């Protein structure tokens, strides 16, 4: 066994980032996609290790370790979906550039829609989103305290970024399982999250 190539992701790109790679890279049509120790998405030639592109995202968000990204295609267009802190990004799989027609110029701020009175803003999308047809199914990592955001699981349209559905992990009145919780828990508690 001889080393064929080696890629240095650049380590921690700035003060807030982590210093380890925990992602499970994916390879599609000879291109390896992964996430660096600095939580930046990248694409390499899987045969040579040559970098094709790498993001340079600098949003103010919580420190996190990313465990990977997801690939979507409709046969003509291909996208990479990846989380950076509290944001979900849609990237052109060939160039790594944000898809401006997705969400808010290529990103969705995931705190919006699961906030509640008294909650903090801690959210990290640290695992790849699940993809079913044209749906991005998104969980998140939240605080594990009384100030946690709601742990809802949501589906977004892979093309537009529009919210399609929400599953409330803390049921609301008239939803299945509501009677197993104390009254109005959905208003007073957060958490009950699913990282994936």
Q: What is the end-to-end distance?
A: 36 Å
| Helix coverage percent | under 10%
The assigned structural class equals mainly beta
Strand content: 25-35%
Give the overall form.
elongated
Radius of gyration: 18 Å
Q: Encode the helix/strand succession as letters.
A: EEEEEEEEEEEEEEH
Number of helices: 1
Oligomer: single chain
Q: Averaging pLDDT over every residue, what do you get?
A: 90
Identify low-pLDDT runs: none
Number of strands: 14
Question: What tags apply to this protein structure?
Answer:
196 residues; mainly beta; four-stranded antiparallel beta sheet; 1 helix; 14 strands; 2% helix
What does this structure look like?
The structure is a single chain. The chain contains one helix and 14 strands; from the N terminus they run ββββββββββββββα. The protein has 196 residues and is an all-beta fold. The strands form four sheets. The protein has a four-stranded antiparallel sheet with strand order 1-2-3-4, with no helix packed on it. A four-stranded antiparallel sheet has the order 5-6-7-8, with no helix packed on it. The radius of gyration is 18 Å and the shape is elongated.
Helix and strand topology:
Blueprint: E1 26-28, E2 31-35, E3 41-45, E4 51-54, E5 69-73, E6 78-84, E7 87-92, E8 107-109, E9 123-124, E10 130-132, E11 135-138, E12 141-142, E13 153-157, E14 163-167, H1 185-188
Describe the structure concisely for a colleague:
The protein is mainly beta. It has one helix at 185-188; strands at 26-28, 31-35, 41-45, 51-54, 69-73, 78-84, 87-92, 107-109, 123-124, 130-132, 135-138, 141-142, 153-157, 163-167.
